[in-house]
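Pilot study result, target chain (155 residues):
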Amino acid sequence: MAYTAAVITVSDLGSRGQRVDTSGPAICAMLEKAGFTVTYTAIVPDEIPQIQTELTTAADGRHINLIITTGGTGLSPRDVTPEATLAVLDREIRAMWVEGLKITPRAMLSRAVAGTRGRSLILNLPGSEKAARENLSAVIGALEHAMRMIAVEGH
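Predicted structure:
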């Protein structure tokens, strides 16, 4: 597999240097172990315009194959990652929540979304390192297939 990845952490506190981001580095390590080359990382506040800019720049400007966000998928009024993501997607897909239900009933209330923009796959993950790892683990085995389909390498 020779695909690129970006990991964008969405956190008000993290973007101000008031919280150490552990989920972003954990996701990067998992992706690299799976064969992805992480070419871009960022930490942005929970602001729709900034999240959208990061997503569109990663997809359209940097042509990154897989773009993962961590954070901003809960029920807090500041959790706006799904809204920002939906606004930039060409197509929405269903992803990780079913597998998450096997671990915790809280997964039923996740607002994380996934979809494509051009030839990029965008996935929202929760902000906690544990939940981000669990959700990525649920789909990581299917990512290579998804990358091939999006790149029109499949049927």
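One observation from the pilot: The chain has seven helices and six strands. A full batch analysis is planned for the follow-on phase.
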